[in-house]
Amino acid sequence: MKIEVCLTPALIDLYDIEQSIVVVIDILRATSSITYGIENGAEAIIPVANVEDCLNYNDKGYLLAAERNGEVVVGYDFGNSPFSYTKEKVGGKTVVLTTTNGTKALHLANKRASQVLIGSFLNLDALCDYLKVQDKNVLLLCAGWKDQFNLEDTLFAGAVVSKLRQYFEHFDDSSVAAEDLYGIAKNDLRKYLNKSSHSHRLAQLNIEEDVVFCLQLNICQAIPVLEGDRLVKLAV
Amino acid sequence: MKIEVCLTPALIDLYDIEQSIVVVIDILRATSSITYGIENGAEAIIPVANVEDCLNYNDKGYLLAAERNGEVVVGYDFGNSPFSYTKEKVGGKTVVLTTTNGTKALHLANKRASQVLIGSFLNLDALCDYLKVQDKNVLLLCAGWKDQFNLEDTLFAGAVVSKLRQYFEHFDDSSVAAEDLYGIAKNDLRKYLNKSSHSHRLAQLNIEEDVVFCLQLNICQAIPVLEGDRLVKLAV
Asked: What residue in A sits closest to B152 (Cα-Cα)?
């Protein structure tokens, strides 16, 4: 079995994923918030491509979440800050979510993969425990930033490769690179990400608390899985 | 001024390179051999996209070089082994060359960039000495392997970033990653590349001598530059 890392959604067509599990990764902040929301009892999170698509769910009693370029879109309940995905706010609710990068990656994966899961540092161990016993190829799909490579998603992919190395045989060059970068960064992920361009973008948005939150390891057990067009809690 | 690393040709459209110098990188083996050939007095090397295009130059007294999937195409004078680009073989000659990845990357860059140069470990310092005084943005374009990320091209990009860090202000996430990977690998590039998928491919082709040759630092002063459709020696 093999693990590969797709460094940006723009490269997804290079991978044969019909029989694979695809893990979508958008650490800052979509897949961290989705993990946290499902952990906190959200019934489902529906990823949609466009802000306009969110509005189609307007009269169904759903929470509407929309983020573009790191900010909550005016008029929406919230965006993709993990602090909006607490028990109090999303427990028992369905959230309709659109984000700059994460939801696009989800839709690309959903077209072709055998199974689509959500990964984040928050559920790293739970995710790896699941993947290592599935006997399936794994593609770690980094959402990146507008089709560009980014560090934080690559570091998480590297964390997964590092955890799963003993259970898989084949690794592509990008998984080797991701694992080695994680090796450099793992003792202080926040400090390492100061090197990243996205970090500067985020600093301007004044969401340092979000960044620190999203870099916590293993505070969640839930693995969100795409069923049809809805992300729900995987039964394990 | 900024340095960016385009990790595969499939991502080139994400970069605004009209005013930039683009350095094309295909360490194993096209840009190493091109550097060595120009260093050794080849009058010009003409990169062409297809094997068939080589044949258009059949009756002009040029040397015809064609490589696909790591092997010399049957009927051609040679492929992209650096040992075919010695003084004796290419001095004073024009070579028409097509390769799996390198020539494709060259043509993509040539459509839009301000200037297109050839980089390899063989001319690392000469290249960096030139780039640091040009007052232009630099894009390091990794040729990769069939649009996939590869380690050896990324390591070279990282070597350039490392050399030029003090002369530039802005670095994208992929240049940060490339530099850090080079930091891990630089003390024994050959050993590090044992981790790579391409390394296994190359082992099967029995070209270990080529790999070792292409990882030598600074044995050349020449910087090949694209002028029209021909790579010639840059006048510095």
From this structure: A173
**Is B14's CB within 8 Å of A148's CB?**
yes
**Closest residue in chain A to residue B176, using alpha carbons only:** A195
Q: How far apart are CA A109 and CA B161, in angstroms?
A: 33
Indicate if the pLDDT at residue B13 is higher than 90.
yes
Task: Give chain B's length.
Answer: 236
Rounded Cα–Cα distance for residues A41 and A44 (Å): 9
**What average pLDDT does range B143-150 have in this prediction?**
94
Chain A closest CA to B210's CA: distance in Å?
Answer: 20
Q: Which fold has domain B2-230?
A: putative 2-phosphosulfolactate phosphatase (3.90.1560)
Please indicate whether, in this complex, the C-beta atoms of A176 and B198 are within 8 angstroms of each other. no
pLDDT digits (tens, 9 = 90+) for A110-124: 888 999 999 999 999
State the pLDDT confidence band at A101, using cuts at 50, 70 and 90.
Answer: confident
Determine the residue among A3, A146, A180 to mutate to test chain B binding: the one whose Cβ has the most chain B Cβ atoms within 10 Å. Answer: A180
Name the CATH architecture for the domain at A2-224. Answer: Alpha-Beta Complex (3.90)
pLDDT in tens, B192-234: 998 887 667 777 777 889 999 999 999 999 999 999 999 999 9
Instruction: DSSP for B30-62, please give it.
Output: HHHHHHHHHHTT-SEEEE-SSHHHHHTTTTTT-
Side by side, the strands of the sheet bearing A21-25 are A71-72, A63-68, A94-98, A44-47, A230-233, A224-227, A115-119, A21-25, A138-142, A2-6, A170-171
What residues does each domain of chain A span?
Answer: 2-224
Residue of B151, B176, B197 lying closest to A195 (CB–CB): B176
The ipTM is 0.95
Residues of B in contact with A174 (CB under 8 A): 148-149
Digit-coded pLDDT (tens) for A216-235: 999 999 999 999 999 999 99
Which pLDDT value is given to residue A198? 67
Give the minimum alpha-carbon distance from B135 to chain A in angstroms, rounded to a whole number: 22
Q: What is the mean pLDDT of residues B97-126?
A: 93
Select the residue from B180, B181, B188 to test the A interface by mutation, using most A Cβ atoms within 10 A. B180
pLDDT tens-place string over residues B17-31: 999 999 999 999 999
> Which residue's entry shows tokens 């370029």?
A69
**Residue B126 pLDDT more than 70?**
yes
Closest alpha carbon to A88 in A67, A52, A63, A113: A63
| Structural tokens at position A236 | 């394990």
Cβ contact, residue pair B197, A172, below 8 Å: yes
Q: Which of A8, A151, A198 sits opposite B177 (nearest CB)?
A: A151
